[in-house]
Amino acid sequence: MNFRTPLSALFPGTSGRLLTALVDHHTAADRPLALEDLSKNAAVTSTQLEAALFRLGLLGLIAPRRKGEAVRLVPGHIVWAALHQLSDLRDAVIAHVHEEAQARLHPAPDHLILTGAVIEGTATHSADVLELIVVPPPTARADWHDGLAALVSRLSRDLGNVVIHRTARDTAEAEAMGGTNAVSVLPA
Q1: In angstroms, how far is CA 117 from the centroid of its own chain?
Q2: Taking the CB of residue 65, how many other CB atoms lie within 10 A of it?
Q3: Checking phi first, is residue 43 left (phi over 0); if not, alpha (psi -120 to 50) or beta?
Q4: Does a cis peptide bond (omega within 30 degrees of 0) precede residue 64?
């Protein structure tokens, strides 16, 4: 999965690049967006841009306009919230890992940290990694690591990226292994 530009990955070509540019602009939706700026930001020609804008106008995402006029978004349209969610999946990944770890690892690990290209939002290919750094609980049974392996496999399938894990002895070692961009998932 491409976590850097997920809208372009989900909607290839002009549509994905245009949606990415418009979602970026959505926070300033009261301000019209000049076609030249939009064309540059989306890396599309004016002909491609007009055709795609026409389709978005039919969906109600942009205010009615004439060909060549600046673009005004309809900020309250229900689709914008979904597009914002799709454009930045980091929080969704963190929540998903948290839920799956709580459901599959008993007892819960003492500490679980995420690092790698997926959590940093720089992953552009399915081979880009999400790494779990795990501090097992002291009361873990011998088969606890089987549950961890099953979690890693499940997350790889759910995210569409390679998920790996490393084990740390304690929280300090886990944090050192994770580095400055790591995100702590457990304890909550």
Answers
A1: 11
A2: 15
A3: left
A4: no
Query: Does one domain contain both 110 and 78?
Result: no
Q: Is 51 left (phi over 0), alpha (psi -120 to 50) or beta?
A: alpha
Strand 111-115 relative to strand 129-135, pairing: antiparallel
In a domain, 179, yes or no: yes
| SS3 labels along 96-151 | HHHHHHHHHCCCCCCEEEEECHHHHCCCCCCCCEEEEEEECCCCCCCCHHHHHHHH
> Which of 45, 34, 48, 42 shows the shortest CA–CA distance to 17?
42
Q: Same domain for 46 and 79? A: yes
Amino acid at 125: H
pLDDT digits (tens, 9 = 90+) for 128-164: 999 999 999 999 998 999 999 999 999 999 999 999 9
